[in-house]
Structures are given as C-alpha cells and as structure tokens.
Write a structure and sequence with these properties.
This protein is mainly alpha-helical. It folds into 2 domains: 160 residues, Leucine-rich Repeat Variant (Alpha Horseshoe), CATH 1.25.10.10; 107 residues, Leucine-rich Repeat Variant (Alpha Horseshoe), CATH 1.25.10. Helix content is 69%, strand content 0%. Helix 6 packs across helix 7, helix 15 runs antiparallel to helix 16 and helix 15 packs parallel to helix 17. The longest helix is centred in the C-terminal third of the chain and has 21 residues. The radius of gyration is 25 Å and the shape is elongated. The mean pLDDT is 92.
Length: 345
C-alpha cells in the first residue's frame, strides 16, 4: 500500500464513530511509528496529534514508546517534533504513570528525544512538577531547541511552583539573548506580577533589577518591553535603573516607552516625565501610539492611576475617542482609592 493510501486509511479509521475501529487504526499507526525504517513518521505523528481523540487508554504506554522512538531519527528543527510534544503531553495528562518514561526521555542522549519530552511535560500540569530539576538542567543543553522547549515548559508550569522556577528563569535571562531571553523575561513577569500587586513580592529574585537592566539594552523591542515591566517590580537594583527607564521613555517602540513610564511610577520616580510621555502617547495622531498607552493602562492598579489622575482626567474629557472610555474608568478607580483613604491632611 502506498504511503498516501496508508495515511488515508488510518485517518478514516481514527475518525470513525466506533471505538474498536479507532483503536485498531491507532494501533496500526503506532506499530508503524515503532518500525525501523518507517519513512512517514512526521505525517503519522501529525495525524495522531490531530485525530486520535478520545484516546484508547490501554494503548497509551505503547503510544509513548512509539512516539519517542519515532523522533529519535528526526532533525532537531523538524516541525513534527512539536506534534510529538503535543501528543506526549496529551498522553501524559491522560495517564500520569507515563511521566517516568518522559523523565527518562529528558535524560536521553538524543537531543530530539529530549526536545520532544521537554516540550511535553509543561502541558501535563501539576503532576509533572517532579520533572522540574531535569527541565532546569535542559536549559543548559548545547542544542538551542532543547533549551527553548524546556524554557517554554518552565514558563507554563511557573504558577504551580513559582519559588522553584523564578530563580531558574532569572538565571536564563541573565545568560541568554534573543528569543531565549524574551521567553525567560516574559515567564518571570507572568510569575511576579500577581504577587507584586498583592504586596507579597516573590523571594529568590534579588538580582531582578540587574538582569532587567541588561534586557533594557537588548536590540529586540519585545525583550526591552519585558525588561521595563520587570524593572518596575524590582524592589532593589542598580542605581542606574531609573536613568535607563527615563531614557527608554524615548524608545523607538511606543510600547517600550509606555511600559517604561509605568515602571518609573511604580518605582516612585518619573513623577513629571512619565505622565508627560503617557499623555503624548494618548493624544498622538498615530493609532499605534495610543494603543501602546492604552495597553499599559488597562488593568492598571489604582495607586498608579492616582498618580496619573491629571493626565487621565484630561484624556477622558478631551482625548481621542478611542481613549476616553478607559480613561473614565481609571479616573473612577483613582477616586475610589482616594475615598477609601480619606481626604488629604
């Protein structure tokens, strides 16, 4: 049977309404994946990932072994490795006893096997927290794809074990550049924002200010944005942090400029420059600039809205139509905060 006909037969079987037919089709695909020399592994993995649902539970052990076997001979940049990670994550969620096999895969000498496993465990959730030491070890893998997959999984699992994962992300952000630095900083911001707003900053990130300052000088705007946001949450850091943020108010990216303004206000600095820059963005004739300001203002904590009261009030009354509604809401939140605290002495 030709490869195309074989795949079409399996696809029809996986989409059948009766479980025995689906199970038989899945078993045939898994047997092919485990067969040495099978030439259509990438298409078969994509088919399983897209069409094998609901899973046949008794086939899960065989499926995990077959998928890990299939990826062993692939190129590290093969798109099918993402299908393999998705499928392994799905299998692991359905049967957490398979985590032992995934832990072994994280130690495997083949980088494609480690890449697939590293991308899978983050999709399993709390049951996968035991893999954290191995995931953190994968961050130092010489293969960029392995480290990147581990970094994404750590970011996904971060909220389940923030005090274990935040220091690893901080160390990654300090030593990496480009996409890896961005993923580490974005993961850190996701972990730190809620505790910061609640007044309970996360422990273990004492070097946050220095690392964020490095990111603020990165050539990628997305990295500089995350770095600016994190500098606003750093309880301590280099003295030059405020100066760097003030310079970033004129960053070519309006998003970086807007986040730098909020960071300065969070740090108790920029009481004149930061509101003035946000006003420029809010009243800009360029929609991109207005959107950048609105993005940082949406969900802004009332204490910062209070510092921006004059700008927000003006924008709510006289600003472009697309900024008025949000500024009205922020003015109201600042008023509520003031009423709770009482009139100034």
């Amino acid at each position: 049977m030709s490869n195309d006909k074989e795949l079409a037969k399996w696809a029809a079987g996986l989409e059948a309404e009766d479980e025995p037919t689906r199970a038989q089709a899945a078993k045939e695909v898994l047997s092919a994946l485990a067969r040495p020399g099978f030439k259509n592994s990438e298409a078969a993995l994509s088919l399983l990932q897209a069409s094998w649902w609901p899973l046949t539970r008794e086939l899960i052990p065989e499926a995990v072994a077959a998928v890990l076997s299939a990826v062993r001979g692939m190129a590290l940049d093969a798109p099918a490795l993402e299908d393999a990670s998705l499928l392994l994550g799905h299998l692991g969620r359905e049967d957490t006893s398979r985590l032992e096999a995934l832990e072994a895969a994280l130690r495997d000498p083949a980088p494609t096997v480690r890449r697939a496993a590293a991308g899978a465990v983050g999709r399993i959730g709390e049951a996968a927290l035991g893999t954290l030491p191995l995931l953190i070890e994968c961050l130092r893998a010489p293969e960029e794809e392995v480290g990147g997959a581990a970094l994404e999984s750590l970011g996904t699992l971060g909220s389940l074990a923030p005090e274990a994962i935040a220091p690893a992300l901080l160390a990654e952000a300090e030593r990496s550049k480009g996409a890896r630095r961005y993923l580490a900083l974005a993961g850190l911001r996701g972990l730190l924002e809620e505790p910061y707003r609640a007044g309970h900053p996360l422990a273990g990130v004492q070097n946050l200010g220095a690392v964020a300052l490095l990111g603020l000088a990165d050539e990628e705007p997305a990295v500089r944005l995350e770095a600016a946001a994190l500098l606003g949450m750093a309880s301590s850091g280099p003295a030059e942090g405020n100066g760097a943020l003030e310079r970033s108010l004129r960053d070519p990216s309006p998003d970086v400029a807007a986040y730098s303004a909020i960071a300065l206000l969070r740090r108790g600095a920029g009481s004149t420059e930061a509101p003035a820059r946000l006003r420029e963005l809010l009243f800009s004739d360029t929609a991109e600039h207005r959107f950048a300001a609105l993005s940082v203002l949406d969900g802004l904590e009332p204490s910062i809205a209070k510092q921006l009261r004059a700008v927000l009030d003006e924008a709510a009354r006289q600003g472009p139509e697309d900024v008025r509604a949000l500024c009205h809401q922020l003015v109201a939140s600042a008023d509520v905060l003031q009423s709770r605290r009482g009139p100034p002495a």
